Amino acid sequence: MHFTITHPMHTHPYNPELVTGDGVAAVAVAAEAAGFTGFGFTDHPAPTQRWLDAGGHDALDPFVAMGYAAARTSTLRLIPNIVVLPYRNPFVVAKSGATLDLLSGGRFTLAVGVGYLKREFAALGVDFDERADLFTEALSVIRAVWTSDEFSFEGRHFTAKGITAHPRPVSTPHPPIWIGGNTAAARARAVAFGDGWCPFPAPAVLAQTARTAALDSVERLGEAIDDLRRRCDAAGRDPATVDVTFTNLGGGDPGGADFDPDRYLEGVAALERLGVTWIQVTVPGDSLAHACETIEEFGRRVIAQR
Predict the structure, then answer these.
(1) Residue 264 near residue 302 (C-beta atoms within 8 A)
(2) Do 150 and 163 form a contact (C-beta atoms < 8 A)?
(3) N vs C: which end of the chain shows fewer Cβ within 10 Å?
């Protein structure tokens, strides 16, 4: 089992300590020292004030921030949570990802999602109703441009002829691609294009807001993983080659007054039995010191006990 965290900018406004270079580096270094395998950032280039006031959060640019974290660490894998793929031309995403993978020595995983914030799509000039088609198109382009020369593709809004984009990533055949989302369509994309599936806990109300399927229990997760395995079998893929990441629903959140390491470890074991290979851990963002202390404690009381 691997553990990963997202830089803890959970709120608006955020704690300003978290958005300095030293703050990003401190969290990344603490995570690596504690035994975490992954570290990343969210992707919200143009959120609305309305969304922020309703519980949304601010964000750094994920590629720039992951590059900074990569320079201050040596083993930590850079995993965004998540890049909204339709927001950008796929060649731009491929170039950013290849550069990060090259400069980090092969430590990049491209975790991507379709997106759900209509006004953010509008601000970026992207047709919200096209997002699923744009997502699938981008997956095809990114994999191909990472692994071939003189690549040509007729996109919905671009024409690429004879594209050769070097330097390539150092990961072979390319950096892992994880597909976000709770739906059957997300699992189908993970089997067709990806190396991992990264759903997230979503009770009915959140699922409606995020325009995805409800996923609010270990039982429902198990049913979804069974569906993923059936899809792998039908496609001739070994299910063991597809990572699954999820949040542990047992034991409370690290750093909270109710956090119970023993119950948390029981939850980890239950997820492992289902086939989860990565756990997304939530750490507090109220202060840099609290975040780093929580990371260290989690490493000692959970990761080291595995």
Answers:
(1) yes
(2) yes
(3) C
Kindly state the DSSP code that residue 15 receives in the 8-state scheme: P
CA angle 256, 262, 267 (to 5 degrees): 90
Strand ranges for the chain from DSSP E: 2-6, 38-40, 77-78, 83-84, 110-113, 151-154, 159-163, 177-180, 196-198, 243-246, 278-281
Q: Looking at residue 198, what DSSP letter applies?
A: E
Residue spans of alpha helices (H) in 155-287: 184-193, 204-209, 218-235, 261-274
Cα–Cα distance measured from residue 11 to residue 210, given in angstroms and rounded to the nearest whole number = 17
Picking from 21, 16, 14, 64, the residue whose alpha carbon sits closest to that of residue 40 is 64
Tokens found for residue 212: 């995805």
The DSSP output letter for 33 is H
- Output the six-digit token pair for 192: 């067709």
Question: Looking at residue 73, what DSSP letter applies?
Answer: -
> Closest by alpha carbon to 85, among 93, 77, 76?
93
Mean pLDDT of 219-235: 97
- At position 254, the amino acid (one-letter code) is P
For residue range 238-255, what is the model confidence (pLDDT) as tens digits? 999 999 999 999 999 999
145-169 pLDDT, tens digit per residue, is 999 999 999 999 999 999 999 999 9
Q: Exposed e or buried b for every residue in 231-260, given b needs 16+ CB within 10 A? A: bbeeeeeebeebbbbbbbebbbbbbeeebe
Instruction: Give the confidence band of 213 by pLDDT, cuts at 50, 70, 90.
Output: confident
Q: What are the pLDDT digits (tens) for 90-107?
A: 999 999 999 999 999 999
Q: How far is CA 29 from CA 2, 170, 236, in A?
A: 17, 23, 40
